[in-house]
Design goal:
It contains 34 helices and 23 strands. It is of the alpha+beta class. Strands 3-4-9-6-8-7 form a six-stranded mixed beta barrel, surrounded by four helices. Strands 15-16-21-18-20-19 form a six-stranded mixed β-barrel, surrounded by four helices. The protein has a four-stranded antiparallel sheet with strand order 14-22-13-23. α2 packs antiparallel against α10, α9 runs antiparallel to α10 and α29 packs parallel to α32.
Length: 996
């Protein structure tokens, strides 16, 4: 058994002999392992923060119960309901609910003040959203808090007397009132078949901001708060007493139920609870929204992004740590071959030499790993999270100052195990080399490696055949076992994990293949630098190819890293662009009003609730349909009609309004009491090939209301096609989707037949195709490119023709309304105004395109921030690898440096020689990585577009490429200048003394 103390002493002594090389190795491992730990710590912090964000975004609301209007309900049914029976029913049957919070909300308007210092009014008014809350109950449940505007200090607002109010500071900046002022609020509500109006003066007690009291979206609303008893008194106790129009429910163990790392598990638990409540209170009468769960669904993008980062960083960290440590130990072993031979002559065994090398590797890894974990903890807590928080806060104001730092024991342990185990594994190769050395060969004074040939014992295993066989078997196993399981189970985790693994393997394979171009690219950069320095060109050209074996690990590392950087940067740039494009295609206009309450065709087979698409537990579809008197629950009295267009045009800021009539499937729901079913089919004139379609009735204003730049016609054009759609002609005209055109072989100018079913009546109409569109804003789902989208594909006709062939009244029901604004900045204020003034009468949703784009880009922004930090750190690790390799090369080539200095090269020229060599290696391998990364990203995005039917967007991350090349160049220039400082100034005779 070797003396462990002596082994450690010698290992430390040898590492200290070359302090620079050892320091580079430890710093490289520290950054490498630190990057891995940083990603794990970020993952822990994000998971905790995202649960906090759920509460911030949803205002602590786990469930929100509201009245659901359905076909056949009593005519005088109100949005305001008795909540106490519901509370008692749930309390008697469930123990999971912590609090029941009733609220009353209604709309009104107030006059605008001339200024904060005066109560003089101007001739303007603003719509307001009045929220009546139970202060006593919410204080008892600690449900949110009021805070001072601009500060995190609590505001003394624990109650409001009758006819006193508080105003949200964002809205108060518009209406300009001060505390203790009197404000006249004109308000109204619909109670059954009565519309009640009240005008009352209120005293303003506080101007407030809030935390967790309402969803973060309420920051965009003109919010005024009063005590719920004020509204009871104002609208007469016998009318509203004991009622509310929203009942908020909170869960007892809410923090334990939502986990961004286990979305499916969280969804299943919360949806089961919601289903149980829904059964208790009635399926028809009430609707349950799940605000937190809606937000949690978005974290799937975040989870996938973190997984990609983790896998990527793990591979890069292990690769670079291994290369660094292996390079240091191999150089160290080469220098000390004779020392190891002398140990043997003094009685040491082969195992003694092996243990020395392994201990050196362990020391490097331990120091680097421990420092890396400490560095990651400090960097995450004090650098990354504050920077990321500042960036994220621009998109999520509620997260400002609320991003929590969190780490788990398992993250620390995993980082340590990876760091140490990788170091020990790569130490084995140089250790075995020392162990296998023959004694006489190691102590020979003129020892040199035989470069001609060596006799080798025939290996017991043919490794080449084994590797090829394993690769082929792995490919076959994937096709035979993994793909069928993905197709049958639909396991999202398995699918994403498989795709990530395949992407990384493909990228690695492409990178290795791309290295075949390296000699060509090397010669290009050699000739490029020849332009600037002809004197040194012959020298560094020889050196680059002579030391190709030593530089190979550095080249591979740079190629991998640059390919990952460009691939991920390009992929996220593409995804971010696609979210903008997708939002524009889905909504199509500045503001879109969509009628709510429809059952879409896919929902008939699987009844969903709460916007989550999940089935109620233990209830069949048949039982659900039996519970509905008329088959559908849509209430025609709450659907927008074409008259609403004229009301919209009266609102300041709205420039144009275009309407879309309810589709045949929607008409079936509207007229379900009459038993009418509406359908539309399109086919060739002989009727051999037909498809059921989504018939769309548009008006002439549609082209000037939507984002026309996104329209894509494959046959015809927008001007002529739309013009022919509204011309008076003998035959009807239509625009069809590219999917229908491809599936039914229909082309521009063809005469097709349309079969319209109206209840018991069926009629056939000839139509002329005046346009074929692949993309139509506002109808992205209906207009697709592939023939797979032909079923229920879009066919667009004029509203006049639509009403004629469908035989519907002259004031039709609407499915959508497209609104063009004078200024996009007005979208949120007009959106709030429409919701406040009309939510009592109609069931609809107002969507702001500007807000939708911002929200969809949000998660890519978060991931992009973390990716940028991660990728920049990875480049730095590679540069440490390059400098470590360069330093080892400098030590190995010291005699060479002495010779070329003897031949006349000065110290500065030595620095320039090594710098050019390093730059050529970095630029060549980096260029290979850029080519491979961009090509792989392009292939991925093209494949994704085939599945999504979106147009191809060619993006190249030019700024990222320039940034990483500039960082690398600056790092090399500074690093080599420092490393060569001694060799540049050392006397030639001293160099010969050290190396002869």
């Amino acid at each position: 058994m070797p003396n462990i103390r002596l082994v450690f002493k010698y290992a430390f002594k040898d590492l200290l002999r070359h302090k620079v090389r050892t320091s580079l190795g430890i710093i490289g491992v520290m950054i490498s392992v630190g990057l891995l730990a940083l990603v794990l710590f970020l993952s822990d912090s994000i998971s905790v923060t995202f649960v906090d964000y759920l509460s911030i975004d949803a205002g602590q609301q786990d469930f929100n119960i509201r009245v659901r209007h359905y076909n056949g309900e009593p005519d005088n049914r109100s949005n305001y309901f008795d909540y106490q029976p519901i509370v008692e029913t749930i309390q008697n049957n469930m123990d999971e609910i912590r609090g029941f919070i009733p609220r009353i909300s209604l709309w009104g308007n107030v006059s605008v003040s001339k200024g904060f210092e005066t109560q003089e009014l101007i001739n303007e008014s603003e719509g307001v959203y009045i929220s009546g809350i139970n202060f006593t109950l919410e204080n008892k449940l600690t449900f949110g808090s009021f805070v001072k505007p601009g500060l995190n200090e609590l505001l003394d607002l624990s109650s409001l007397p009758l006819y006193h109010c508080a105003i949200y500071y964002g809205f108060n900046d518009d209406i300009k009132y001060a505390e203790n002022d009197t404000i006249e609020i004109r308000m109204g509500l619909r109670y059954g078949d009565k519309i009640l109006h009240r005008v009352k003066n209120f005293t303003i007690d506080r101007i407030f901001d809030f935390q967790l009291k309402w969803p973060i979206g309420y920051a965009n609303r003109p919010l005024i708060v009063v005590d719920i008893n004020t509204l009871y008194d104002l609208f007469e106790n016998e009318t509203l007493n004991g009622k509310c129009n929203e009942l908020i429910l909170t869960l007892k163990k809410s923090l334990n139920l939502y986990d961004a790392r286990d979305i499916d598990g969280s969804e299943n638990i919360v949806k089961d609870l919601a289903a149980e409540i829904q059964l208790l209170i009635g399926i028809n009468e009430y609707n349950i929204d799940l605000p937190k769960l809606d937000v949690l669904g978005f974290s799937e993008f975040l989870s996938v992004g973190i997984t990609i980062i983790f896998v990527f960083v793990s591979m890069i960290s292990m690769l670079i740590s291994g290369i660094l440590i292996n390079g240091i130990l191999k150089t160290s072993v080469e220098e000390r071959i004779r020392e190891f031979g002398i140990f043997r002559t003094l009685g040491a065994t082969k195992k003694y030499n092996l243990i020395i090398v392994l201990v050196q590797g362990m020391i490097l890894c331990n120091f680097g790993t421990i420092l890396g974990i400490i560095f990651a903890q400090l960097a995450t807590q004090y650098i990354v999270l504050p920077i990321a928080g500042a960036v994220v806060a621009e998109s999520i104001p509620g997260l400002t100052g609320n991003i929590s730092f969190s780490i788990t024991f398992w993250s620390i342990l995993f980082s340590y195990i990876i760091g140490v185990s990788v170091g020990l594994i790569v130490s084995i190769s140089p250790a075995l080399k020392v162990m296998k050395l023959q004694l006489i060969e190691s102590i020979h004074p003129y020892r040199k490696e035989d470069v001609l040939y060596k006799l080798r014992k025939k290996a017991p295993v043919d490794y080449k055949l084994l590797i090829v066989g394993v690769i082929l078997a792995a490919n076959s196993a994937f096709v035979l076992f993994v793909i069928p399981r993905i197709m049958t189970t639909g396991d999202a985790a398995l699918l994403s994990g498989t795709l990530i693994a395949l992407l990384i393997l493909f990228l690695i394979g492409m990178t290795l293949a791309g290295l075949g171009l390296l000699p060509l690219i090397l010669r290009f950069f050699i000739e490029f630098f020849h332009i600037f320095n002809k004197k040194l060109a012959p020298v560094y050209k020889i050196f680059i190819f002579r030391y190709a074996r030593r530089n190979s690990s550095t080249i591979v590392t740079f190629a991998f890293t640059f390919s990952f950087v460009i691939f991920t940067a390009g992929a996220f740039s593409f995804l971010s662009s696609q979210t903008v494009l997708s939002a524009n295609l889905n909504y199509g206009a500045d503001l879109v009003i969509e009628t709510q309450g429809w059952y879409e065709p896919e929902e008939i087979e699987g009844f969903g609730f709460g916007g989550l698409g999940g089935d109620f537990a233990s209830i069949s579809n048949n039982e659900l349909k039996i519970s509905q008197e008329n088959g559908y629950s849509i209430d025609p009295n709450r659907i927008l009609t074409s008259d609403f267009k004229f009301e919209l045009l009266k609102i300041e800021g709205i420039e144009r309004v275009s309407t879309v009539i309810a589709s045949p499937f929607h008409l079936t729901q509207i007229y379900s009491e009459e038993g009418k079913e509406f359908t539309a089919e399109i086919g060739d004139y002989a009727g051999l090939n037909v498809h059921e379609i989504s018939l769309i009735g548009i008006d002439e204003v549609y082209p000037s209301t939507i984002k026309t730049k996104y329209i894509e016609f494959t046959q015809g054009d927008i001007l002529s096609s739309i013009e022919q759609l509204f011309e008076e002609q003998e035959e009807y005209t239509c625009i069809i989707s590219e999917g229908i055109s491809a599936s039914l072989d229909m082309h521009l100018g063809d005469i097709v037949r349309m079969v319209i079913q109206r209840g018991d009546e069926t009629e056939i109409y000839p139509f002329k195709v005046v346009g074929v569109a692949a993309v139509m804003p506002g109808f992205f789902a209906e207009f697709g490119r592939s023939s797979a989208s032909a079923h229920m594909g879009g066919v667009m006709i004029s509203q006049k023709v639509y009403m004629n062939i469908m035989d519907i009244p002259p004031i039709p029901y609407l499915d959508k309304v497209f609104i063009k604004l004078n200024l996009e900045t007005l979208s949120l204020s007009i959106k709030s105004q429409l919701e406040i003034e009309n939510e009592q009468n109609y069931d609809f949703d107002v969507i702001s395109l500007q807000q939708a784009v911002t929200q969809q880009q949000l998660f890519f922004t978060i991931i992009d921030v973390f990716f940028t930090i991660t990728l920049d750190a990875t480049i730095v690790i590679c540069l440490f690898g390059l400098l470590s390799s360069s330093y080892s090369t400098i030590i190995e080539r010291k005699k060479e440096i002495g010779i070329i200095r003897t031949l006349g090269l000065k110290g500065k020229e030595i620095t320039k020689l090594f710098t050019i060599e390093s730059l050529i290696i970095m630029l060549s391998s980096g260029t290979v990585g850029v080519i491979v990364g961009w090509t792989t990203g392009l292939l991925l995005t093209t494949s994704m577009n085939l599945m999504s039917d979106l147009p191809n967007i060619l993006t190249f991350p030019l700024s990222d490429m320039i940034a990483i090349f500039m960082i690398s160049i600056i790092f090399i220039l500074i690093g080599l200048k420092v490393l060569l400082k001694k060799s540049r100034k050392q006397k030639i005779i001293d160099i010969y003394r050290e190396t002869m």
